[in-house]
Amino acid sequence: MPNDILVHLPVDRPADSVIDCAISVAQLFEAHLDGIACAYQPINPAIVVGASAAYFADATQYNTDLDLAAQRLDQFQLAVRNSGLSHGGRTICDSPALANQTLSEISRLYDLSIVAQADRSRRSHHDALPEAVLFNSGQPMLLIPYIHTGPLKLDRVLICWDGSRPAARAVRDAMPFLHKAGQIEIVAINEDEDVPEDLLADALIAHLARHDLAASANKFACEPHNIHSAILSAAADTSADLLVMGGYGHSRIREFILGGVTRGMFKSLTVPALMSH
């Protein structure tokens, strides 16, 4: 059960949907809710050389300041104060890489982090935060689409299942949400090819039943490069309110590169997604 929740507040774009979702989730579990807003500051130009100079010149336009971060935190605190929830808030200020590292580390002592999806039409240093939190916090992350409005609903929850360790971790982390769900559906893609016999969707249905949770499965095949689109189509067809899925990455010398399905979801997400790594 999530007893304390952290919401990362985007500073350079509207945060209403993230705040509304965070408050609704905290109310659902009677949890403490903290908000954090980050001011991204310039990189020291003295250390920028060669090919990095072009990136530096482009990236400076996405910097934010502490006044903007304070304003976003004030917005959050006013909204959560009216909800009656136990809450707190803070701002931090650092260069983009160090700030996102710090934010992901802060997330380690919360049961759940809530983060806004990147809006590809409005580039920001905040865009790298979901990946940092997913891979570095060690905790589940609720990713809120930038097109989402209003509180989180749990009438229909869709579990993305492939029998993998991240998928199993996501199901475990999602248990409090699943017990609040009206309906649970499992989507299993290319199951005959990719999933061991003992980890098929039917085995997950039996596992959930032992937790007093009823679920059904939707099994189909599609091209590997199109899996994220197939998941989002299934979410639309079932009017899903929440996706539950593992976040996949490939390790490369202490950093993670997003796997194809996760990368596609980060770009195209249309439904809030509870993700675990």
TrEMBL record:
| UniProt-listed Gene3D superfamilies | 3.40.50.12370
* Origin superkingdom: Bacteria
Give the signal peptide range. Answer: none
SUPFAM superfamilies linked to this entry: Adenine nucleotide alpha hydrolases-like
Q: Which CDD domains match?
A: USP-like
Fetch the Pfam families from UniProt. Usp (PF00582)
The UspA domain covers 155-275
Return the similarity comment.
Belongs to the universal stress protein A family.
What name goes with this protein? Answer: Nucleotide-binding universal stress UspA family protein
Organism, per UniProt?
Rhodopseudomonas rhenobacensis
In the record, what lineage is assigned to the organism producing the protein? Bacteria, Pseudomonadati, Pseudomonadota, Alphaproteobacteria, Hyphomicrobiales
